[in-house]
Amino acid sequence: MFVNRILCVLSFIYAVKGDYAVPSLTLEALKKGGFRVYIPDVPGTALFAFHANINDNIRAQHPGSVNGEARTPTNGFWILEFNDKLKQGDVVNYWLFVNANHLGYRKDGEPIKITRLLDAYTELKGRCEPGSTVINGGKATCVDNVIFQDKFDGSTINTMLWKVEHRIPTYSEPNSPFNSYENREDTKFIKDNKLHLKPNAVPESDVRGTLNLREGCTGTKEIECFYEQRSSFLLPPVKASKVVSTTSFKYGKVEIRAKLPRGDWIFPIVQLEFAQRDIANPSKIWIAYSRGNTKLIMSDPNDIDVRGFSGTDIGGRLLLAGPTLEEREPQRSKRLVHKYADQPFSDDYHTYGLVWTKDQMRFYVDSEEYGSVDLSTENLDRECVLSLGVGVGGLFDFPEGTYSGSNYKPWSNEDRNAIKRFFEKKPIWVQTWDDEKSCLIVDHVQITAV
User: Fold this and answer.
1) I want to staple 285 with a disulfide (CB 3.0 to 4.6 A). Which of 20, 35, 136, 272 is the partner?
2) CA distance linking residue 169 with residue 180, whole number of Å
3) So what's the pLDDT on residue 1?
4) What region, left, alpha or beta, does residue 289 occupy, with left being phi > 0 and alpha being psi -120 to 50 degrees?
5) 26-128: CATH number
6) Is residue 77 within 8 Å of residue 40, measured between CB atoms?
7) Nearest-CA neighbor of 80 among 41, 13, 35?
8) Are 225 and 172 in contact (CB under 8 A)?
């Protein structure tokens, strides 16, 4: 009866426009079967209806194979529950109808791909407070809604949540890291419910010849997918890993519990990057950056320009965070905040946090705020993705003239033979690498709307 009534009046209400905006819909699916959809109870809402097909397109005004209506909100939300069992990879195509302020509004929803299944539904706490956070191209959120989460409780990386990088950044990115990112089981894996992202040094035979990553390549240029060694321009001497969230967002609270990697000339990738990759604007927002060298002494303290930092040891006891809007030092460090600890951050797990709003970024470690960055003059008003990984060497991460213990940095950032010089000293730096300790190990990730 309801469906017939809705279809009869749609030709009239579809053209109605007013100040009301149909809220974004949230879908939650359970492991045991069943799913629910809900929208926040925006003032004036009197009815909420949902029409969907699973793994099949739905035509405008068609009732769909799954449908229902709610006439009363519950605890600040309009909620509909269904018994249908969804699985990861299923796609829900839908449209919804809302009666608000005595007018009808129909909205075609973007298809929802099921990326995770829950043990239980999320507890909904009161009326939705519209958040400043937006996700996936501008979709609205409610304050305190979890918009992204991974506890790494599966046997493999959930590719609905993460894109695994498979490309060669060495000769295409300004920093020219001395590693490839490869989708291999020995560079990324889940062990004990923790994500391990591992750098692996390669033998002499693997730095010569060709590296063909065309199958499954995530790069946008041929040089990122295929490279042939020429003279001293070796193939990357390290195979590493990097994953990027499939959810993009602007503003939010990020929490990552992780153990940073240890080993000479290794650096962690725990950062936000613009969702729309821009080679000309490689700005990043570091959430946790600490070089893998246990002790790394600069010969010139002016090589970096971190606010409030006047030391010379930029090794594993120095934690950095903040936006890096330029590639080269010392300009790269000007907007960073820091914390200097008694022990290297790679010694143990820590919870790294970022609260990002329109005007400010605040950075935390183990619930302690250690710095903030004013954004009133910065252009960071774009959606970002979360990147996790490890990198090695490069032209901008390790200043000239640094000493790791008693070992001098084996390459110059201005030397065309930098990779060759780095690889020649492999017998020295590889001794500082450890099978487990050189991994970035991530316990969990959660991003919440603000």
Assistant:
1) 272
2) 6
3) 40
4) beta
5) 2.60.40.2140
6) yes
7) 35
8) no
* Rounded Cα gap, residues 173 and 236, in angstroms: 13
Contact 288, 270 (CB under 8 A): yes
Give the residue from 392, 426, 378 showing the smallest Cα distance to 175.
392
In single-letter form, the type of residue at position 46 comes to A
Handedness of CA 12, 13, 14, 19 (dihedral sign): positive
Q: What 8-state DSSP symbol labels residue 167?
A: B
Q: What is the spatial distance between Cα 340 and Cα 313, in angstroms, rounded to a whole number? A: 10
- The DSSP letter of residue 124 is P
Q: How far apart are CA 61 and CA 56, in angstroms?
A: 15
Residue 190 has φ and ψ, to the nearest 5°, of -110, 130
Tell me which CATH code domain 162-449 carries: 2.60.120.200
Both tokens assigned to 308? 């409030």
Task: Please give the Cα distance from 249 to 160 (Å, whole number).
Answer: 16
User: Mind giving me the DSSP string for 281-315?
Assistant: ---EEEEEE--S-SSEE-S-GGG---TT---SB-S
Tell me, what's the pLDDT at 279?
A: 63
Q: For the chain, which residues make up each domain, given as ranges?
A: 26-128, 162-449
